[in-house]
Amino acid sequence: MTASEKANPAMREYNENYFNIHQWLIRHHGRAIKCENTNCTNKECKRFEWALINGMEYKRTINNYIQLCPSCHRKYDFT
Questions:
Q1: Which letter, b or e, does each residue of 36-71 get, where b requires 16 or more Cβ atoms within 10 Å of its Cβ?
Q2: 19 in helix, strand or coil?
Q3: Of 24, 30, 34, 67, whose CB is crowded by the most CB atoms within 10 A?
Q4: What is the pTM of this model?
């Protein structure tokens, strides 16, 4: 447990939920295998990630997530 998690129980709960949701995604839907961003320019990418759709909550429902390459995932999170 980090110092911030000790000082802030809500942060600990968030981190545990984040980890558990990602483990659930991989266990039930496998690892992300493609970039679903139609404007993706990173055609050589071999690694993909599950990304929470903007405006959605961390819940165990596949409809709240999309598959993105790391580059598109970072851009998506900051737009």
A1: ebeeeeeeeeeebbbbbeeeeeeeeeeebbbbbbee
A2: helix
A3: 67
A4: 0.78
Model confidence over 4-47: pLDDT tens digits? Answer: 556 666 666 666 688 899 999 999 999 999 999 999 999 899 99
Q: What is the DSSP string of 22-79?
A: HHHHHHHH-S--S---TT---TT----EEEEPTT--S-S-GGGEEEE-HHHHHHHHT-
User: Can you tell me the distance from the alpha carbon of 71 to that of 48, in angstroms, rounded to the nearest whole number?
Assistant: 9
Contacts of 74 (CB under 8 A, 6+ apart): none
Residues 31, 58: Cα–Cα separation, whole Å: 17
